Amino acid sequence: MDTSSAISSGIDNKQVYHWKDGTPFELTRASVCTRTLSCEEEDIDALTTTTASTNDDVEDKAPKTSTEVTNKEEHVTSCTIRLMSEEEHLFETLIAAADAYENGIITVDNFENASLEKNSTSPTCVTPPPPGCHVSIRVAGGWVRDKILGSHSHDVDIALDTMSGVQFASIVQAYLHTLAQEGKIPKSQSNKKIGVISANPNQSKHLETATMKILNIECDFVNLRAEEVYEEHSRIPTQQTKQFGTPLEDALRRDFTVNSLFYNIRTKQVEDYTNRGLDDLLMHRMIVTPLDPHTTFHDDPLRVLRAIRFCVRYDLDLDTTLREAAMSKEVHHSLHIKVSRERVGKELEGMLTGKGAKPGRALDLITELKLAGSVFCFPPKDVKVSGTVLGHEYVGTEEELAHLREIGWEEARALLQLLPQAMEAHNDELHKIEEDQTHASNTTSSNNKHEPPSVVDIRLLHLAVFLLPFRHLLYIDKKGKEQSVVSYMIKESIKYKTKDISSVVALMDHADKMQTIIRTLRDVLEQSTNHEFPSELPQLCRLETGLLLRTTKDLWVSCLLMASVAEMRDVQSCGNNSVVKNGMDDVLQTSRETYRSILNLGLDKCWKVRPLLDGRQLIKSLDLPKGPLVGVYLDDQVRWMLQHPNGSKDECERHLWQRKREREGADEEEHEISRGISDGVCPSSPVKKGNSAEESEGRHFSKKMHVESMDLM
Is the pTM above the cut of 0.85? Predict the structure, then answer.
């Protein structure tokens, strides 16, 4: 289709545009947009509108994906929104439903609201509209922001000015029911239930929200939020609060200007009632609050974490006044007591995972804004915490303990800054290994396929590195058991799943062991004449490494990187610049070679290797009684198999028989000794006639040493 040019004219100081066919349309004061239909369609019309501050005609041109800054005040004058065909259909459906209600074609009664959830506080029926009623339908918040940035958004938030979200959802439901009766849509599309999320001002959830899936798109319906009036020291709005707000009131009550934009689906315009939302999003690249940030954060303290998430995900900066408010103790206190820990954890999860997530930068910002203690809370003051933070005993006055925590969080920032180097070195080594394997497969006729190696858990790695300074702190839980403070932070402060808790604790518990392996191999590297890494790990290191991998399982690569970061930090804390640089390079090289050696030795996935002899076979072969003793020999078998990866079942069985004879001999000897002691001078003493007690003691000592040496195998 040919797109017509729009010609502007001034009428009563308002900017009015006309299409060539004479159809007029008027811009709102805060409206600027470019709108196109689905980018997959070729035969489409493009509607381009500009701000009232420019007198230039709207040009007839192809849809654009970039913004324009044309006037002297350097405001954004155009942007692009691309609607998918499903979104276009959705908006047409919502408009048609509103029109049918306004014209009295459909009514909503209690029968048609039978699928409405009962926790709604809104009326379950919608009264006929008054004469001249007009329902403005706007898409709000994240959908508009993402569309302007050229991203797809899965959720659509609909804001209404004349009725509640539940009421309008009921109208849409009734309209879909009518279409189904007329055979225009399948009945399955008209039977969608309306979910209701109740308002909860104490948890900063101010408006009741209706949820409904329409045309396979998740939609939330809510009325525009008005300026709320509160009693002192209360978050419950009083009766003086208006039921429905204006678009301006709603925009000002939103968290950030970049999220205060509306897309009016009737006028097909983007509305920027703060007069800076588009500029902050596209030109200034800044997170700014519509009102004073203290007011915005008091309204919902979780917004301080949302600011960090949006800042990191969209590569924006934080406004200076916002930073100052975010660092205030009042905001920290409100976040700690007003916001549920589940909401805090969910917001943190958005920083650690998902499209555009940068967990290192997000955690660094949390610390920079002094929010770490409010996000990762310590046990209550009446719970005793013991242990050390960076070698300092966790004892003293409340001020001294707060200082120790602050030292720990600063150390966490320092560790996070080293993590990218360790991850980059690992990725380089992984890429090199993949190239070697590809080259080997191309030069040989082997059809063997390499099993994908264990991978890094980016989310848990960042979380574990960040909390590493507190790994030596313990507390007593309600059951009287000693637990790590890190487990409390993850379980109680951010309400993560049990698997996440156990995984992070496992990383903490084995970080020192992995760091010891790295140090051992660094020593081997330094003592090597040609300064090259040995082709095989030392035998003892192979056993220890295998046992460590069997404990950490798929987390072993994350544990290796975390230990590498800890070792780099130790190197960084001592020596001059050249020594530190060489030491850090050595650590990274050792980490890479350790990873390669573990793969070459077949230790990766060693925890999945089936035993040569299972429990029943051990009982039968070794003539063992059922019970815990079987587990002892299973452990013996694991250790033998780690050291003899190509050993046979018969060899393993002979080894276990030898271990059994040694244990039985040691037990018999210990029993004879105990009998000799009980009898005083004993005929059953192992001391033979003519031999001295010293010789006997030497034999016993030699036997004991032999058993201990076998335990290392």
Answer: no
